[in-house]
Design brief:
Strand order of the largest sheet: 1-2
Structural class: mainly alpha
Helix content: 40-55%
Shape: globular
Mean pLDDT: 84
Order of helices and strands: HHEEHH
Strand content: under 5%
Number of strands: 2
Radius of gyration: 17 Å
Low-confidence stretches: 122-128
Number of domains: 1
Length: 134
């Protein structure tokens, strides 16, 4: 496995699909609908290449375990568009600004899902050590 593949979010095959599917001025619903496709494609690539997630160390207990890469977010997709020359930087910035407005107006998380409660980040829960144990 090449160095860095365990942390890689966008493989060349995914970028090629992005390049072929991206259209100027898509609706945000269309963009959000693309995200599961990239998550599935990344999982298939990692399985085919026997790429295991990186080891991470718990800052509280010191145990080591395999991490899980986060799902592809709208913002990750926008940065991939710019990084791979599909859209210029000014277009990415405009898209990102439009996304933030749409996200706030519709109370969506980073992946385009409705938030459970205003301001809550769905799918991301911080687990703190049990303070009563000390």
């Amino acid at each position: 496995m090449p160095s860095g593949d365990a942390q890689r979010a966008w493989f060349p095959e995914m970028v090629e699909v992005l390049r072929n599917t991206w259209r100027a001025s898509p609706s945000w619903e269309q963009v959000i609908a693309l995200l599961p496709r990239f998550d599935e494609q990344r999982a298939r690539i990692q399985a085919a290449r026997n790429i295991r997630p990186p080891l991470v160390k718990c800052r509280y207990c010191g145990s080591r375990s395999r991490s899980e890469l986060p799902k592809v977010s709208v913002r990750s997709l926008l940065f991939a568009l710019e990084k791979n020359g599909i859209v210029p930087p000014d277009e990415r910035k405009r898209l990102e600004s439009d996304w933030f407005r749409y996200q706030k107006k519709n109370e969506l998380d980073a992946w385009g899902n409705k938030q459970s409660a205003p301001g809550e980040r769905a799918g991301r829960k911080r687990v703190l050590p049990d303070e009563s144990a000390s």
